[in-house]
């Protein structure tokens, strides 16, 4: 019988190399979203709507706004905040709700572990996917900003790699936390964490509005780091301080990745 | 192909597998029988390299699952107890993506998919969503998927549980063809007819241990009589009546709904029962089956 006759072809099943495994996981997710593109698009729209309503709408009645001692347009202040929020949305949607579904209901990773794939391949592949979605969101967002004449510096192009950093940080941490969740109710906590982060991480007003201790809390949130980084880039004023944000986000991603891999081991390889 | 020495698996205080020795030769259809909780699935998971053994030694293709998991898995086909099909992809893409996880080139995977869909009679469902398939179709798709890497060993954990009789026969037919093509089959089941039909060699597991090992026929000859007389009395009478007939047979089993009398001549037993002025509601004489071996060895009916 041909289907069982390995001699028919020279191709033989084998373990994958790391890069191949990650690429296949990306491809699997692309196949899924090819049929569910609407879901993909709606996640992108929220920060865009905020840019229009708060940044441009409210911005029209804000006068004399200053940032770091310089007078700037309020919408130029809000736009980079929405870039970072867009990157966060892009990765967290898949890293929490969809990751939970794949893990508990679709049994996707049980399926993958019956093949030569390893848990580290799964963790890396899914985090790369989170990054990719963040990157796509932010690239599209940047184009909208160009069309609205909100980009004033070539440095702004670097928000795309910045989005990849934000995507990996939120993706890895989101997935790590999701491995501890037991029911859909637990996701209320995700919403509960995302909403204030979105509103208060120096997205709509500067962090100087906070009293000292509260300011400190805001400044350690990953979204704040992302917002500051994006703002420095779109305003064309990157500094050595930007590197702090880069290192901070990288560390978040790396620690998250390690936790995810270990959690997948203990959940799936029992 | 597979060898285990003193293989153990425990979950906290619970010992699921308590030291088993198994050796599976190439080309054999090897069955694991046992009630729920006997340790069959735990054993399968260890062989499939998704569950690290707690003790003992395990080798698959001569390799250690702890070290060479991916290499072993490249040569294994796995058909798990619960279907783990990707519900976000259609039938074709399920096979395609899965095949690619084995490092096979695109064109190769596509060629194999066409053959496999034909083999499991799902060619016209290639574009269907997984959720729209019937239980039997999902099972067939899972089997097709497990064959995409042309495995040397196919591991099937309760391949026909929950399927209707027709769907079961289709699966059995396909598994039989695979066996003839030289694939080593490793299956767990708690259906005796399945074990009798498919397996060349069996082990019976109970409470984490192997309690018997042999061919289906050999086990029947070794652990049961040629025939069985089944007697059915009124509800609740079986326990009390057992004492009155137990001398008529070599061995007697008391089930909630009937008495099983083991003897080489079943008809003679029935006649003797009647001559004692006992009138069972129904009687039946049949040949011994694996079910009887199982009852004898584990003291339990199978599906409990």
From TrEMBL, chain A:
Keywords annotated in UniProt: Antibiotic resistance, Cell membrane, Membrane, Transmembrane, Transmembrane helix, Transport
One GO location term (cellular component): ATP-binding cassette (ABC) transporter complex
Subcellular compartments: Cell membrane; Membrane
Domain ABC transmembrane type-2: from-to ranges: 38-267
Topology of this chain in the membrane: Multi-pass membrane protein
GO biological process, one term: response to antibiotic
Membrane-spanning intervals of the chain: 37-65, 77-101, 162-180, 192-213, 240-260
Protein name: Transport permease protein
Phylogenetic placement of the source organism: Bacteria, Bacillati, Actinomycetota, Actinomycetes, Propionibacteriales
TrEMBL record, chain B:
Coiled coil location: none
Membrane topology classification: Peripheral membrane protein
UniProt-listed GO biological process terms: response to antibiotic
Pfam families (alphabetical): ABC_tran
One annotated GO molecular function: ATP hydrolysis activity
Chief place of localization: membrane
InterPro entries documented for this protein: AAA+_ATPase, ABC_transporter-like_ATP-bd, ABC_transporter-like_CS, ABC_transporter_ATP-binding, P-loop_NTPase
Stored SUPFAM superfamilies: P-loop containing nucleoside triphosphate hydrolases (SSF52540)
Cellular compartment(s): Cell membrane
Entry GO terms, CC: plasma membrane
Entry keyword set: Antibiotic resistance, ATP-binding, Cell membrane, Membrane, Nucleotide-binding, Translocase, Transport
Domain ABC transporter intervals: 2-232
Family affiliation: Belongs to the ABC transporter superfamily.
Protein's UniProt name: ABC transporter
Origin species: Nocardioides luteus
Phylogenetic placement of the source organism: Bacteria, Bacillati, Actinomycetota, Actinomycetes, Propionibacteriales
């Amino acid at each position: 019988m041909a289907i069982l006759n390995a001699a028919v072809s020279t191709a033989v099943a084998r373990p994958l190399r790391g890069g191949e495994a990650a690429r296949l996981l990306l491809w699997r997710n692309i196949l899924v979203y090819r049929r569910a593109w609407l879901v993909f698009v709606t996640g992108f729209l929220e920060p865009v709507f905020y840019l229009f309503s708060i940044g441009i709408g409210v911005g029209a009645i804000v006068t004399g706004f200053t940032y770091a001692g310089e007078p700037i347009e309020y919408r130029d202040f809000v736009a980079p905040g929405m870039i970072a929020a867009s990157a966060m949305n892009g990765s967290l949607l898949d890293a929490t709700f969809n990751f939970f579904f794949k893990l508990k209901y679709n049994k996707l990773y049980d399926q993958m572990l019956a093949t030569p794939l390893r848990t580290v391949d799964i963790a890396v592949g899914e985090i790369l996917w989170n990054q990719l979605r963040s990157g796509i969101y932010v690239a599209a967002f940047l184009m909208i900003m160009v069309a609205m004449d909100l980009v004033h510096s070539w440095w702004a192009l670097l928000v795309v790699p910045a989005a990849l950093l934000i995507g990996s940080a939120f993706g890895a941490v989101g997935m790590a936390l999701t491995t501890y969740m037991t029911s859909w109710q637990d996701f209320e906590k995700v919403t509960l964490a995302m909403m204030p982060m979105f509103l208060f991480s120096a997205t709509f007003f500067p962090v100087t509005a906070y009293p000292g201790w509260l300011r400190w809390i805001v400044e350690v949130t990953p979204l704040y780091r992302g917002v500051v980084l994006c703002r420095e880039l779109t305003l064309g004023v990157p500094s050595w301080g930007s590197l702090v944000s880069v290192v901070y986000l990288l560390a978040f991603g790396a620690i998250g990745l390690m936790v995810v891999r270990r959690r997948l081991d203990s959940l799936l390889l029992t | 192909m597979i060898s285990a020495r003193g293989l153990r698996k425990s979950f906290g205080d619970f010992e699921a597998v308590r030291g088993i020795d198994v050796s599976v030769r190439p080309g054999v259809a090897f069955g694991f029988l046992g009630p729920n909780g006997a340790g069959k699935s735990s054993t399968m998971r260890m062989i499939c390299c998704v569950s690290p053994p707690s003790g003992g030694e395990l080798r698959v293709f001569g390799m250690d699952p702890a070290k060479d998991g991916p290499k072993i898995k490249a040569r294994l086909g796995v058909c798990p107890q619960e279907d783990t099909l990707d519900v976000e992809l259609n039938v074709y893409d399920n096979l395609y993506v899965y095949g690619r996880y084995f490092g096979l080139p695109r064109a190769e995977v596509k060629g194999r998919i066409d053959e496999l869909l034909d083999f499991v009679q799902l060619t016209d469902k290639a574009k269907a969503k997984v959720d729209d398939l019937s239980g039997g179709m999902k099972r067939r798709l899972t089997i097709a998927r497990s064959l995409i890497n042309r495995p040397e060993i196919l591991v099937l954990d309760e391949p026909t549980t929950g399927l209707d009789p027709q769907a079961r026969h289709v699966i059995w037919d396909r598994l039989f063809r695979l066996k003839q093509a030289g694939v080593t089959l490793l299956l767990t089941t708690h259906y005796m007819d399945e074990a009798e039909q498919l397996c060349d060699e069996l082990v019976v597991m109970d409470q984490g241990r192997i309690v018997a090992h042999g061919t289906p026929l050999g086990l029947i000859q070794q652990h049961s009589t040629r025939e069985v007389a089944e007697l059915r009395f009124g509800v609740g009478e079986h326990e009390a009546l057992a004492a009155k007939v137990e001398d008529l047979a070599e061995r007697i089993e008391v089930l909630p709904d009937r008495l099983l009398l083991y003897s080489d001549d079943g008809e003679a037993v029935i006649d003797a029962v009647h001559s004692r002025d006992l009138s069972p509601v129904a009687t039946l004489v049949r040949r011994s089956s694996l079910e009887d071996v199982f009852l004898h060895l584990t003291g339990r009916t199978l599906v409990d």
